[in-house]
Amino acid sequence: MTIKDVCEKFGITADTLRYYEKVGAIPKVGRSQGGIREYDDEALSWVRNAVCLRKAGVSVEAIAEYVRLFNMGDETIEARLELLSNERESLGKQLEELTNAVELLDYKISRYREAVETGVLTWDRDPLGN
Amino acid sequence: MTIKDVCEKFGITADTLRYYEKVGAIPKVGRSQGGIREYDDEALSWVRNAVCLRKAGVSVEAIAEYVRLFNMGDETIEARLELLSNERESLGKQLEELTNAVELLDYKISRYREAVETGVLTWDRDPLGN
DNA sequence: TCTTGACTTGGAGCTAACTCCATATAGTAC
DNA sequence: GTACTATATGGAGTTAGCTCCAAGTCAAGA
Fold this sequence. Notes:
Two copies of one chain form a homodimer.
Chain A: H1 3-10, H2 14-23, H3 41-55, H4 60-72, H5 77-118
Helix pairs in contact in A: 4-5
Chain A binds a DNA duplex through residues 2-4, 13-16, 18-19, 23, 31-37, 54, 59-61.
């Protein structure tokens, strides 16, 4: 698979993919004779991993650290478990923040929908709505 | 309430709070004789709004746009509803990405926990685990 | 073979959201 | 009033994560 195919598959740019490789968020990708990247199933699996975690806000640095540990072999299994656990924990917190904000927006939206109908914007929770 | 109190209350720095005011993510805060910020309940409510949305990843620009519309009065109610709905939608997508990543991490973590016990790292879903 | 378009690299440039700094003024305890 | 700490302002600096660019190489079709 060429870099273009991979980009389309995951909805990211070639620059981003090369950047991920450069900083180690995915392992070095194999090349053709002429030096052109050729993505096999394993490479794709790493791309999927990086893209999924990035979309959730995991730092490129953390992803790269995981790849680095992975390439060091079995002695780093515990270190990888700890890294993953830490990231999992911070995503859990992020999930909470996100849920709070969704709740806030849903509340405001309900008030605004009413306001559009009745012409009056009111806040029943907090008298200081905004 | 002084800027320091507000910072402590919300766990952000005074610089951030002044920055939010400068770019309009919160309305202008009232000042004392000498020009020092004095946060009343309404100001606090705006700060709460900004902090909550920022923690979920809503851009400062979008928050500022909401404040701007709010200050323009009742003619902007529909515009505000649309803005809030758009932001709500993108948080919904973000929630999904986050959930996917949490699921991925939980799966990996379960594999790693097993590996720490058994000494063997295996992937039952995808034979190309990483 | 020639042309055209995709791909390569190293490195510079960009944006959002802070974060820090210098200088000056305000408030507070004594 | 003096000393000391907090706050104000404008503007420069920082960081992450891309994004773009130039100059050159590679590959597929006419």
